[in-house]
Amino acid sequence: MTKLWGGRFQKSAEQWVDEFGASIGFDQTLVMEDLEGSVAHVKMLGACQILPQEDVQQILGGLEQLKKLAADNALEFLVANEDIHLNLEKMLIDLIGPVGGKLHTGRSRNDQVATDMHLFLKNRVGEIIELIELFQQTLIAQAETHVETLAPGYTHLQRAQPISFAHHLMAYFWMLDRDKDRFKDSIKRIDISPLGAGALAGTTFPIDRKLSAEYLGFANVYANSMDAVSDRDFIVEFLSNSSMLMAHLSRFAEEIILWSSSEFNFIELDDSFSTGSSIMPQKKNPDMAELIRGKTGRVYGNLMGLLTVIKGLPLAYNKDMQEDKEGMFDTVHTIVGSLKIFEGMVRTMTVHKERLHDTVHKDFSNATELADYLAAKGLPFREAHEVTGKLVFLCIQRGYFLLDLPLDDLQEASSLIESDIYDVLSPLAAVRRRNSLGGTGFDQVTIQIEEAKKRLA
Ligand code: ARG
């Protein structure tokens, strides 16, 4: 089959060579973006009187037909035509005749592919922002029902201090909020048109880049044609923002997995977000959370992959840059799926309030209360820490907890201790009293949830 660029060639490559070089297997994802880019380009060519209106109308008619066929999945892409751009151009010429060959006036595949990628990412990032917001709403809804649910808070995965379970959930709300901000901020670097940059140097035709950008809804145009066709940093940034999001989801996934184990037993995932074992009938596995934790690896991989691809590339376009696509498509697919799954998983999970309540009553996570109590009575905190540590040790030896210690033992350790200590040591009081800004005290958590709702409104 003759190539659209075949004039200079005496023989063609063998098919397996073509197959290695072709991107049509994956860049057909960009079919609509490519057609829209062509529509804007040819309208601009007409408006600037570079092509006669008659030709423009014919080309637009052909592009419309192609759009319909694409929507019906009725286009047949060929490896021989290399990529989405040449496939569509060939189809256009087959459809409307040689006039279709005028579409590529004043344009190159280099600005064309960059335009497609900008259009694609702009739309997808918008969708991702909406999905993050949906998940945030679910987190707020779960948090609202668990403001007064006591839970153990950990450091080093050792019981540290009791907290409100809502506080723990809301921590993820704020991580996601920053992720969302990063995606939002990135839009101003995606929303820029490379169209009209040509192969690298611009064009001799009197084109109007701002007009084609306006047709495509871009807020801006690249100021430098070489930068326009060489830039992939907007994709690196997307992969980086996605990596950060996945890091957050992966930490949450890890907690979901721990919490649903028999050892923790803090939550139970809904059947609809769990799987069974083919051999062990009793199993209910948190597969979805595990998969999200695992998929984080491929998103990081996509980021490292692209950073490595662009490192050391001389300006301007190089075929290496065709490698920007699969990682980006894969990342969009992965984070969209992960966000949807996570939202459903958190919305439908059952929180074992009783078990959480029991847990904080059978540990030493109220030890800080005793130390703070002594410090508030004037004992230097370091000494208060020492006294409390010794009492914890005494409890461990006797096999019980601080609240079980008789007043005599407590007073022997420090004469500053009075009978009000038992109220102070209650986990409920411990949480309620942590009322510093952003703390886990119920009032603060309620304020925090209100703030979060305002952020979403
Ligand atoms: N398929 C190519 C890519 O994805 C399109 C650009 C080709 N440009 C070129 N000069 N060969 O990068």
Automatic annotation (TrEMBL):
The keyword Magnesium does not apply. It catalyses: 2-(N(omega)-L-arginino)succinate = fumarate + L-arginine. Pathway: Amino-acid biosynthesis; L-arginine biosynthesis; L-arginine from L-ornithine and carbamoyl phosphate: step 3/3. The keyword Chaperone does not apply. One of its GO terms (biological process) is L-arginine biosynthetic process via ornithine. PANTHER family: ARGININOSUCCINATE LYASE. This is Argininosuccinate lyase. The gene is argH.
